[in-house]
Hints:
Blueprint: H1 23-35, H2 38-56, H3 64-80, H4 89-96, H5 100-125, H6 130-155, H7 161-173, H8 179-190, H9 206-231, H10 242-261, H11 265-287, H12 315-320, H13 327-332, H14 354-361, H15 364-378, H16 393-400
Amino acid sequence: MSSATTPNPADLIGVDNQDQISSEDRKWAAAKRYWYLITLIVPAILIFSGVMAIETQSGQWLWLLTVVFFIVIPIVDFIYGSDSFNPSEEEQEALKDDRYYVKILYAATALQWVGLASMTCVVTQGDFSWFNILGAILSVGAMHAVGLTMSHELGHKMNDKAQVLAAQICSACSGYAHFNIEHNKGHHKDVATPEDPASSRMGESLYKFALRELPGAARRGWELEANRLKRQKRRVLSVHNELLQSLAITVVGYGAMTYLFGWMALPFLLITAAYGWFQLTMANYIEHYGLLRQTLENGRFERCQPHHSWNNNFKASNLLTLHLQRHSDHHAHPTRPYQLLRDYQDAPELPHGYPAMMGMALIPPAWRSIMDHRVVEWAGGDMEKVNIDPAQREEIFNKFHNPTPASA
């Protein structure tokens, strides 16, 4: 695990581990091309579970994707372990322009909407208990979480109009219209600082973070888009507003489903969308917990570097999140396609993949028992180098502040 001190400049260009790659790693790297199709399987599972619920009249099927997301994926991670493979420079050249990887995202974006419509139909037309409808809500929310990960990947390719449009359509599925604007222009600028509503602080529970992050990100996304339009001397309330464009897709989509399936469709859609937002909040919570960029003499924060993101390399959860868990490389190179994101051996490491860590974050004492000592180790015991919840600052300093003496 790295310390909070400035890392070796080599960290900024990724880790070359070609000498450490085994034949098994090579086979896995080749197979990953096809394993990325798991992105398509997620909405497919949702559709399958709805069909089975109708065919068997057993609402327990509506829990299927939730079980896969929070139980099966962590177990597969435990069984099959981590993936430290980094493509060579030659392999990166072959991978970076391969449209196969983008086409997967386009197909999955369409399937997300089909999955949402099919589950909305099943819930509104079927006769299921509240408990099984809860399973449907959590399962759709899990699909939205993967959808927002896809939107994140597509939205970073700002010079590719087709990918930007697909990102809007994907975000619209869960009604999270401001996501790409806020993430690209806000979060990436302020990440791992107290100014960022999407960077969690040591001592801050997931629920307290959600109350700060959800409205804070929405407000920042709107302000960023309004300022962009004002610089272009355009009206904020106009067809040029990208946030409103995405919101319009949501209104049309949700309106059509409400018309087709009845008024009960609307609360189901809104609740599943809200849970999808919370899923993204959980991901934001675990990605930068407690990590802090230092303030330079000129008053600015230092450049975001690999040790300002928590990483993880477990195979299954990395496929599910399009390598989002290789978060250090993502923040160092935001436009790098998911198939190229690399492992940083010295980056701070999460003990489990995102689905398992999300489950732990729901229980604040469990989360802090697992993560606080890792933050302290990362900072070398110097709590001045940690992003701390102001309400917890005195308690955390009394408990953990013990800077490691500088070596001679």
